[in-house]
Amino acid sequence: MNILVTGGAGFIGGNFVQYMVNKYPEYNIVNLDLLTYAGDLTKHSMIEKKKNYQFIKADIADRKTIMQLFQERDFDYVIHFAAESHVDRSISDPEIFIRTNVLGTQILLDAAKKIGVKKFIHVSTDEVYGELNFDPNTFFTENTPLRPNSPYSASKASSDFLVRAYHETYSLPVNITRCSNNYGPYHFPEKLIPLTISRVLKNDKVPVYGDGKNVRDWLHVYDHCSAIDLVLHKADSGEVFNVGGHNEKTNLEVVKQIISTLNKSDDLIEFVEDRLGHDKRYAIDPTKLERLGWKPKYTFETGIEQTIDWYLENKDWWQAIIEGEYRNYFKNQYGNIN
């Protein structure tokens, strides 16, 4: 089986590449990534010499390169993670999100259609649904209308529609997965959980948007990997699946739990001006995927402890990011870095 994983140097895609290479030694896993700011290959040092793994640097929005690659490799399956994903960056510069997330997806779909892949899995986000109110009995389902509120989520919703259209128009075998907020090893330090961990460890102020009451459903990245594995092998073509962790927390609760685990003071919390268009709440009903045979293994309590331990044991990885090429970006966004 010849599988292309796009965005396999990023956070979720990178964890999935490791998961697949180690679980399925008989599969050939090709990792395609442009290695933009959040792409990192050091995470794959333990698998880079394995016979069933190969890395290719390429831009998914480069039509000529992508079409040639698909013709040469004749991939059986495509798992499409590659995307610009940080909401704050999409607010300040939407154009790159349209190019990568929309045009890049369309080019991949064209290439997949041309060679006749057996399945194209498009990894999306619950943010395409917009926002929920604070009623704990309301959830996103696969039938919830898409109502994106940020340039990032609008670009992902657009790519979702393209994937659906290629299935309906060209009978391309596809699945779409929409996940809640992921966390775990190798999460890029600008996102809430790794940002909080890194700043608390340095006794720096932790910025919290608005009043911190925005709610997110948290999904451990390892649970997400197992969900996509199941969709790859068991799901019927054309189906959409929500992937959620049953772990709803306010942003403030997440920050306080990390601070408490690291035995620091809540005085490190600093409330800042709210993000533009900040969605109130996301919450996923993953019943459809659970009927297929998936269950998350991590509660938020066990998952956040594992994640904090990983960041404590891998300081060299995240310190190289926030103190290296992106030092000025992190300083401008989040204040002083010790």
What is the secondary structure topology, with strand pairs?
Layout (H helix, E strand, L loop, with lengths): L1 E5 L4 H13 L4 E6 L19 E5 L5 H11 L3 E4 L6 H6 L2 H21 L3 E7 L25 H20 L3 E6 L1 E3 L8 H10 L4 E4 L5 E6 H14 L5 E4 L4 E3 H11 L7 E4 L14 H6 L7 H14 L1 H8 L4 H8 L4
Parallel strand pairs: 1-2, 1-4, 2-3, 4-5, 5-6, 6-10, 7-9, 8-12
Antiparallel strand pairs: 9-11
The strand count comes to: 12
Strand order of the largest sheet: 3-2-1-4-5-6-10
Q: In CATH terms, what is the fold-level topology of the largest domain?
A: Rossmann fold
Helix/strand order: EHEEHEHHEHEEHEEHEEHEHHHH
CATH superfamily of the largest domain: NAD(P)-binding Rossmann-like Domain
List unreliable stretches of 5+ residues.
none
What portion of the residues fall into strands of 2 or more residues? Answer: 15-25%
Kindly report the average pLDDT value: 93
Question: Could you characterize the architecture of this molecule?
Answer:
- The chain has 338 residues and is α/β, with parallel strands linked by helices.
- The chain folds into 2 domains: 2-182 and 219-243, NAD(P)-binding Rossmann-like Domain (Rossmann fold, 3-Layer(aba) Sandwich), CATH 3.40.50.720; 185-216 and 247-272 and 281-329, UDP-galactose 4-epimerase, domain 1, CATH 3.90.25.
- It has helices at residues 11-23, 63-73, 87-92, 95-115, 151-170, 192-201, 221-234, 251-261, 287-292, 300-313, 315-322, 327-334; strands at residues 2-6, 28-33, 53-57, 77-80, 119-125, 174-179, 181-183, 206-209, 215-220, 240-243, 248-250, 269-272.
- The strands form 3 sheets. The protein has a 7-stranded parallel beta sheet with strand order 3-2-1-4-5-6-10, with helices on both faces. Strands 7-9-11 form a 3-stranded mixed beta sheet.
- α5 (151-170) links the parallel β5 (119-125) and β6 (174-179).
- α1 (11-23) crosses α7, α2 (63-73) packs parallel to α4 (95-115) and α4 (95-115) packs parallel to α5.
